[in-house]
Amino acid sequence: MSSFEEVIAYKFNRDNFDNILFSIEECSVDDVVLENSETFEDGVRYGWPGDWNRSIRSSIDYLRASSAKAFEISSSLGCPAGLSLKR
């Protein structure tokens, strides 16, 4: 079972705190960053998800060096999708 301890970053689209989760699947850090590259690229301007996000490559390198795990979160009611990165 996964928990949201030691979270490095997360993003939930239109979360309303009443969502019903359908699945939480572990996937590769590379896949999550690459599949969400637009979100990571937009985040550079705002320091999201951290100052280590200067580029797609720097994000992947940082997350690998941190031994981060990536999770894709699907919802059956509420937000359409989300992601979580944790140590």
Helix/strand layout:
Layout lengths: L6 E6 L7 E8 L1 H7 L1 H7 L12 H10 L3 E9 L3 E6 L1
Antiparallel strand pairs: 1-4, 2-3, 3-4
Helix pairs in contact: 1-3
Can you put this structure into words, describing what you see?
By secondary structure, the chain is of the alpha+beta class. The chain has one domain (7-13, 20-86). It has helices at 29-35, 37-43, 56-65; strands spanning 7-12, 20-27, 69-77, 81-86. It has a 4-stranded antiparallel sheet with strand order 1-4-3-2. A hairpin with a 3-residue loop joins strand 3 and strand 4 (81-86). It is globular. The mean pLDDT is 79.
Question: Which properties best describe this structure?
Answer:
87 residues, alpha+beta, 3 helices
> In total, how many beta strands?
4
**Could you say which structural class the secondary elements and strand pairing correspond to?**
alpha+beta
* Low-confidence regions: none
Number of helices: 3
Instruction: Identify the overall geometry.
Output: globular
Determine the strand fraction and express it as a percent band.
25-35%
Number of domains: 1
Strand count, sense and closure of the main sheet?
Answer: 4 strands, antiparallel
In round numbers, the mean pLDDT is 79
Helical content (DSSP H or I, runs of 4+): 25-40%
Order of secondary-structure elements: EEHHHEE
Spatial strand sequence of the major β-sheet: 1-4-3-2
Distance between the first and last residues' Cα: 15 Å
From the alpha-carbon coordinates, what is the Rg to the nearest angstrom? 13 Å
